[in-house]
Predict the structure.
Amino acid sequence: MPDLGAPGGTGGFTLALITESFAVRALLGSLAAAGLAALTVRLRLVHGTRARRVLVLAPVLTAAVAAGVTAVQSTTYLPHLEIMQPSGAVTELRDIVGLGGSRNLLVGVYAAVAGVLLARRLLGAVAVSRLVRRGLPSTDARLGAMVTRLAAVMGLSTPRLRLIPGCPGGAFAYGTLRPVVAVDPALLVALDDGELEGLVAHELAHLRRRDGLLCLIIEVFRDVTFFVPAISLAARWLRHEQEESADAVAVRSTARPAALASGILKVWDRSAASGPRVACAAVPLRRPRLALAGSAPAPLVVSDGARLVAHRVELLLSGRKELSPARRTAEVGLVAAVLAIALAAGLTGPHWIAQRSGHAIEMAYLSAAATEAPDESPAFASFRTLTHAPAQVAAATATADVAEQATGCPCVETQAQLRGGVVAQGPESDQELAWRPRDSSLLVPQGNARTLLALEQRSFRVGVFLVDDEAR
């Protein structure tokens, strides 16, 4: 850890990101996987449902492997936060919570954030469960016959049916051990037989592929790794992939792609007309762009959900070609290559960086307000002349002279400062930030630590260091 040269009584902290920690491994690996997956999808190199699912989950799989390897090696999972030489209120707070000087405070912060996210996830599951329980058992013979027949075609046991007025997305599948298919009773009138059959087949496809269970696992993993952005991106990709794959399974079961496309559009129209709620797998609306006065009108804002629905309908109407066994094998090999490259970036990349650059990157902050004697105004020096011993007069006067020479004008203290015996502060122009060279005297690295950046101000000092094993 760099030596900040902090005299007693000042406060500060260091935040160290260990190069071979889980955080760095997960960040590098998942970002590499997300970039390769996005490129592969953009080039339309993968069409098979199974290969595409593994591809969109590549960031999650890479981060999971990084977590396992880090656990086996017993290395650090999170960055290190250390509080140094606290004073005043900070000391009292540390005494109350009982924190040690080198305790990793980020563990508590991480646990609090992850706990809130997981609690929100649990509350959402409870809300959906209550919504399903409030639904009425279906007595519609047409709907019951469709569900029984399509479940047999897909090799599923017949799920329970619930009618929920205003059902989000028109219909949804819920549960794994005791699955339920919930349908808005208004759709029984709005959709014809072909459209309703396609809608039911789509929801049964989610049950067959266990999309709900997979989504739950990925969402929980995303909550506990909230500091890895690529995991959230992969979770969104997965929801999109699940909708498209469920459409493909439904078409194979019903052989009516146009009917399913028509049903999707009708459900979307009903959801869009009812307010902000949108059809299944759609995401919140994008904010409209602001148009400047006199400029061309802003382009039509289309929600991401509408784009997804349009893409699904386009895929259904264009038809999906059956892939040959050779093409499926090639796609599996391509996805395996993407995973291999991502794992190499996540597992060997940090080790390579540690060997050639440094063991960790540290950001250090030091409150320097109490480390330097502030300027004193001539008026306060005169006050000291009248109230202090003659031996102290010369020192006070010299301090005032130095202040005036450095700032160009004398400092002025307030009445409160005068009564409290607090020395006056310099003018605001002295408080400007100043960038310092790498060999800054205020932030001096220790051992083999190298200063990457140093920033100094009258009240604080900040530095970024590259630290190797010996320096730590």
In short: The mean pLDDT is 75.
